[in-house]
Write a structure and sequence with these properties.
Helices cover 34% and strands 22% of the residues. With 441 residues, the chain is α/β, with parallel strands linked by helices. The relative contact order is 0.08. Bound molecules: 5'-deoxyadenosine (5AD) and iron/sulfur cluster.
Length: 441
Amino acid sequence: MMKRFHVTTFGCQMNEHDSERMKGMLTSLGYEEADQRDQADLILFNTCSIRENADNRFISYLGEAKRLKSEDPARVVGVGGCWAQSVKEDVFRRFPFVDVAFGPGQIHRLAEFLNSDSLTAQGYFEFEEFAGDLPAHRARPFQGWLQISQGCNCVCSYCIVPSTRGREQSRDPLALIEEVERLAADGVREVTLLGQNVNSYGRDLPADTRIRFSDLLRRVDGLEGIERIRYTSPHPKDMREDVIDAHVELPALCEHIHLPLQSGSSPILKKMRRTYNRERYLDRVAMIRGRIPDCGLTTDIIVGFPGETDEDFNQTLEVVDQVGYDGAFTFGYSPRRGTLAAEMDDQVPHPVRKERMAALVELVQERAKQRAQRFIGRSIEVLVEGPSRSDPSRIRGRSRHNKAVNFDGTAEPGQLVEVEIETATSQSLSGSERLLSGIGV
Ligand code: 5AD
Ligand code: SF4
């Protein structure tokens, strides 16, 4: 009987990509994917530690893994990713039924463990070079991730990531281009460049191979078969003209930028150690809007950072109103172990945080809905992903602006089609597939 694995993924797109690589590696080791955890011989969790509720969600799953392991002690339980890295060997003390634990990006270590005869629990938490070209088991054949760097050199005072993913290391540009060529040959039409801070890409490379992020975008754009390029996440401090111009010049680069604001108040941004202030952020937005007409803009915002006053929070509301994002992820501040902000003594009381969050979400949605009206009556390009979640008789896809689009039509996953937009909410657009007449379409 073939051994079976199950991977549960928490957290960001980088983790999703790591999980795809984990699955690809396990398949090449002769394992088969199980649909459910209780059918698997190898139960894996790829964890996140960005906020406290991410930790808690995952820990509630561990109870089930413990039960499954006690039912069949031959089962292997593995915990990878940022939470594992943040607690290191403690994981074995707190959860003795865990067999193997490893930090983010250390998937090859999992193979090492599986191939060893070790009976004792093993932990792998050294920061290393990029783990090499593991085949990824992609969720959709026509979309692929490209991890361009690992780690982060920023020192944002709230963030656990620099301690879970280590210093920034950019991958060699030639290796990246070869990887995209392979993806394209394998049917990928949309590629998403991933990094903790994508637009600082290349600064750590040796002088003879060093290229800028915008150069990398240009090279990927030139590759046959790649019709859409996305990237996440850029840092506002590194959002320079060359990257913005790339959006104008490169046909495959999508009209969408996710530009994390975090706070609209300059004093709070300073305490967050974001290295930009409100004016500089707004100046980047003005440059984007000036040069890339119709660009979709989304953001991340933290509510209730230590010391955030009503006035600071109002500044955030003002920026949200002024920019008019197409969407925003809003997070209540969560103190993380080992970060500077967790030591700050002016933590915002929970009820205040909750109230601010409600006001922010309302404004974000109102502005996103208003912004989305600009698509009504237009025909836009959609990459089809599958059936609509709310109504399976309809089709779902994404526009170049990264808007979810639900529509009536006959298109198949992986196709690029034109959709006429009829209605728009803050979350999604709705319309019908345009039937193209003529030959060759
Ligand atoms: N508390 C709340 N939100 C956080 N984020 C990162 N760290 C924290 C924290 N400690 C948010 C930021 C980041 C997004 C991925 O998660 O907004 O951009
Ligand atoms: Fe979570 Fe951040 Fe790690 Fe991604 S990098 S898994 S968001 S802690």
